[in-house]
Amino acid sequence: QVQLVESGGGLVQAGGSLRLSCAASGRTFSNYAMAWFRQAPGKEREFVATIMWIGGSTYYADSVKGRFTISRDTAKNTLYLQMNSLKPEDTAVYYCAAGNSAGYDYWGQGTQVTVSS
User: Fold this and answer.
1) Strands in 18-91 per DSSP E
2) How far apart are CA 4 and CA 10, in angstroms?
3) Among 55, 57, 66, 83, which has the highest number of CB atoms less than 10 A from its own CB?
């Protein structure tokens, strides 16, 4: 049974930093892309960043480029999202996901990030 479990969310002031983690288990992800999405209240879920499990190539949404860094530790089966220079508009529930060319098959339960102004 595949499980993705996020942690690291919380309340931070604007300009601050947080690091989210996503512990993955239940299968090998060698052919998968891992990603972070977020959903703010009243808005649709949006893509934040993705990384290939093998190779480590990354891609970011324009809204977070230069402020967020996605990474993974293959030995620990853990995905990370380092978030710096946080803004109030980054407030959302953040989800990690695993997928391939057919789409994102697996999702975590989400972790709340709140940025106060």
Assistant:
1) 18-25, 33-39, 46-52, 58-60, 68-73, 78-83
2) 18
3) 83
